[in-house]
Amino acid sequence: MIYYIYIGLIQMPTFKEQLLLALEECSSILLNPYMLTRFSSHYSQNSLYTTVKRIEKQGLIEKFEHEGKNHLRLTNRGKALIEKHRADSNKPRTLWDKRWRLVIFDIPEKKAQLRKYLRSYLVTLGFGRAQRSVWISPYDFRKEIRRYLLKLNLSEYVYQLLVEEFEGLSGEEIATEFWDLGSIHNKYIKFYRDWSERLNGIEEEMEETTDYDPSILHRYMKHLSWDYQAVLSRDPHLPEELLPTDWGGKVAREFIRTCRRKFPH
């Protein structure tokens, strides 16, 4: 599973970021073309090896040989970069200007695969689907989308609109209608309940023994962070005023903050 890095508001994870996080999850990865199955389908084999070469040169990963085969693993510098980006994700988000951004497209069937890539990109940016070829977001990604359309040579088939309001629908109703907030809420609540139980058990063990191995707690906190990032990657991060008052994301975020205060690492 790939865990997205959120920098500032929200961005599509680059291939570089996906690779670094995959390496953190797995400790090491065998370097071969089948690595591509871990990532988005529109990356080429050439993209894989070019990215590996570039970030190896940056000192973020290193190659090593095991059983006669080349593997990749994170360097300390790579691990530090991931932690920095995760810290940045806790910064306040840009305030919503109360306007909506629509992406509308009519892409020929002969470009169906590219149309699929565009839809996946919009989902990653946090867009909701209003209709099959109409997507909506409260945030301004026009520059990012223009660059992506140029890359795919789809600019002539796509329109971006700025909308002040939807007649007959409030902001909260739009959020509920076009995003699966219920499912995301449930994932946050499940994360909170599962990890509350696990960490309560750890605290009891720590109280009952004088020689508790701190590396166990460290591993738990790392897995907690992975699980939280997994839910975050599905969250469109809508403005707070559009979310339910009992939004599970608030519960999970406060839980994470409490854990980091109680178990600093």
Rg computed from alpha carbons, rounded to a whole number of angstroms: 21 Å
**Strands, total number:** 7
Q: What characterizes the major β-sheet?
A: 4 strands, antiparallel
Binned, the helix content reads: 40-55%
Strand order of the largest sheet: 5-6-4-7
- List the total number of helices: 9
SS class: alpha+beta
Strand content: 5-15%
How much is the average pLDDT? 81
Count of discrete domains? 3
Please trace the helix and strand order, writing H or E for each element. Answer: HEHEEHEHEEHEHHHH
Head-to-tail CA distance between termini: 24 Å
Structure in words:
It contains nine helices and seven strands. It has helices spanning 15-26, 45-57, 76-88, 112-125, 142-152, 171-178, 181-208, 214-232, 248-262, and strands at 29-30, 61-66, 69-74, 100-105, 128-131, 134-137, 158-163. The protein is flat. The protein has 265 residues and is of the alpha+beta class. A hairpin with a 2-residue loop joins strand 5 and strand 6. The longest helix has 28 residues, at 181-208. The chain has three domains: 15-88, Winged helix-like DNA-binding domain superfamily/Winged helix DNA-binding domain (Arc Repressor Mutant, subunit A, Orthogonal Bundle); 100-175, Alpha-Beta Plaits (2-Layer Sandwich), CATH 3.30.70; 180-262. The two termini are 24 Å apart. It has a four-stranded antiparallel sheet with strand order 5-6-4-7, covered by helices on one side. 50% of the residues lie in helices and 13% in strands.
